[in-house]
Design goal:
mainly beta; seven-stranded mixed β-sheet; 133 residues; 8% helix
Length: 133
């Protein structure tokens, strides 16, 4: 299993960005996919996740109402639309996937150390989101 992500960039506070991620290698659509974010010296914190099969979603409290996760089945791609971005959203965003959406969400709530990334099926290379004026 692997994920390939794209997106990110520099945006002013209040602006918007969209991240994309595509997972490959799963035999079914029943898997979880989403994004963590990391700032230097801190744990990877869960941002948002989607059960690709039934589209149930999870959002961290800090992004609820501002970020939207969705899928495009025709492109087999998941998107994270980030609106009303704040300087505290600045981080490297990593797409991640796991065959268990519930496990993925549990790790998002707990956070992940870099040494624990192998617990998930796939971890993306990361995309920098820089919110600055």
């Amino acid at each position: 299993v692997m994920v390939v992500e794209s997106g990110g960039g520099l945006v002013q506070p209040g602006g918007s960005l969209r991240l994309s991620c595509r997972a490959s290698g799963y035999a079914t659509e029943n898997y979880g996919i989403g994004w963590f974010r990391q700032v230097p010296g801190k744990r990877n914190r869960g941002v948002s996740a989607l059960n690709y099969g039934d589209e149930t979603t999870y959002y961290a409290d800090s992004v609820q109402g501002r970020f939207t996760i969705s899928r495009d089945k025709s492109k087999k791609t998941v998107y994270l639309q980030m609106n009303n971005l704040k300087p505290e959203d600045t981080a490297v965003y990593h797409c991640a996937a796991d065959e268990s959406a519930s496990f993925l969400i549990a790790t998002m709530k707990a956070g992940l150390e870099s040494s624990q990334l192998g617990a998930l099926d796939a971890w993306g290379q990361g995309a920098l989101v820089n919110v600055s004026s």
